[in-house]
Amino acid sequence: MYLHGTSKINDKGHLEIGGVDSTELAQRYGTPLYVMDEALVRRRCREFVDAFQATGLKFQVAYASKALCVMAMCRIVEQEGLSLDVVSDGELYTALQAGFPPERIHFHGNNKTPMEIEMALDAGIGCFVVDNLTELRLLNAIAGEKKKQVPILLRITPGVEAHTHEYISTGQIDSKFGFDLGNGAAFEAVHEASQSAHVRLLGIHSHIGSQIFEVEGFSLAAEKMASFASRVRDELQIVFPVINLGGGFGVRYVEGDTPLPMSTYVEAIAEAVKTQFHAVSYPMPEIWIEPGRSIVGDAGTTLYTVGTSKDIPGVRKYVAVDGGMTDNPRPALYQSEYEAMLANRANDAADEQVSIAGKCCESGDMLIWDVQLPAVNSGDILAVASTGAYNYAMASNYNRIRRPALVFVKDGESDLAVKRETHEDLVRNDVVPERMKQKETAR
Ligand SMILES: Cc1ncc(COP(=O)(O)O)c(C=O)c1O
Ligand SMILES: N[C@@H](CCCC[NH3+])C(=O)O
Asked: Where N6-(pyridoxal phosphate)lysine occurs, residue numbers (predicted)?
């Protein structure tokens, strides 16, 4: 398994993260356990900010909190000076509870409800990224009732297909998100927004997909945005002060993944925006981006305890852990691949090929197909790398399995950021109607 960030093998032959022995973490907090390498999260935040600062351009880096939205994460992002992108009342609530400055919050989503819009307006968030005309009209009406004028970006579908899994590719024409550039919808939206008294149009937004390992898609999106902005200026006399190119920067999950340094993405985006907007004699806009996965993805490791195994001679050996698709649904959803190691026997020769199964009543509940490990015993601690993004965020209670705890580790210390769910948590919202309380149904 590739050792990310501060991960290393200590002299006991154990995996250590943030200076803390992972077997001690497993002992202290139980398993499954999400472990976040705080130094690596902060390093990633700084890589984006430093790279933009070096360009001398105006910018905003907003962490896409959908990747991992917990209060501790909002605090780190605040301390690192980033903005925050939320897509629901729940993410907004988490950010506000964590004391995140509302003026640095951007609200995304293709179906914001009236309640969510009101909540965000009342909180005084920095900007809405408007996805469609229904939302534009609703937002304008609600902001009008509140006698406010709210900054917005319009989400454009640029018609750029990023090379990634089709379920996480969003910039193509056939997408549920945004105003289409090609069929005139984007232009009409700009026109309508400019006539709407209670919104202030800051600019346009595009997001071409996720887990992208090349810069060409971003350059192409910048080119399309510049040509659209220029047409809008010429025909409507509107100039956008902001261009948002979304997130999607790839991280390493397994060998063969080839993420670029974050500075390479930023430099390419800055260069493309400069060149393309200069080419149409446009005043240089402020550049905004929204990385999610690339801030937290490779900083996360999940620790599991090995339980049972089943050897089918000539077929395969299944090794089952105490978690699975409930804490990491990505392999089941996207055929995502992960690397693993035995955290308690990191130096032992990996001479057995096994497949890692979860504990759900579901044949598709597999975490890893075919991984080389030392001969695995019940009680071993299995570490799976690069689980920081879209794992806790997408975890479920399927089979009424309790969601794991999440800790941040740094400089030899570990801090609980999310408690493990209890049995009481599982039934907290259940209600048994009175008529179901009697012992048997009278027939
Ligand atoms: C609009 C928008 N912005 C930002 C992101 C974050 O993407 P990633 O986590 O790949 O950086 C997403 C998710 O793909 C998104 O839909
Ligand atoms: N949840 C997806 C990415 C979706 C990104 C949000 N638009 C993943 O785990 O890869």
From this structure: 66
Give residue-wise pLDDT tens across range 4-34: 999 999 999 999 999 999 999 999 999 999 9
In the chain, % of residues over pLDDT 90: 94
How many whole angstroms separate alpha carbon 58 and alpha carbon 270? Answer: 10
Which ranges in 302-350 belong to alpha helices (H)? 330-334
Verify whether ligand 2 is closer than 6 Å to residue 104 (CB atom).
no
Q: Which of 66, 68, 327, 387 has most ligand 2 atoms within 8 Å of CB, for mutation?
A: 66
Domains in the chain and their CATH numbers?
8-37+297-427 (2.40.37.10), 108-291 (3.20.20.10)
Which ipTM did the prediction report?
Answer: 0.98
**How many angstroms is it from 170 CA to the middle of ligand 1?**
9
8 Å CB contact between 78 and 422: no
Task: Indicate the DSSP class of residue 420.
Answer: P
Q: Encoding tokens for residue 419? A: 């408690």
Measuring CA to CA, how many Å separate 333 from each of 28, 101, 314, 367, 394? 31, 34, 28, 11, 11
Q: Which ligand is in closest contact with the Cα of 333? A: 2
127 included as an active-site residue = no
If residue 26 lies in a helix (H) or strand (E), which one and from where to where? Answer: helix 22-29
- Going by C-alpha positions, the residue among 172, 144, 140 that lies closest to residue 158 is 172
Q: How far is CA 136 from the centre of its chain?
A: 25
Per-residue pLDDT tens over the stretch 32-72:
999 999 999 999 999 999 999 999 999 999 999 999 999 99
Q: Within 10 Å of residue 376's Cβ, how many Cβ atoms?
A: 18
| Separation in Å, CA 167 to CA 211, 253, 304 | 11, 18, 28
In DSSP terms, 59 is beta-bridged to 287
Reduce the DSSP state of residue 366 to 3 states and report it. Answer: strand
d(CA 121, CA 148): 8
State the distance from the centre of ligand 2 to the C-alpha of 168, rounded, in angstroms.
Answer: 6
Quick one: which ligand is closest to 294's CA? Answer: 1
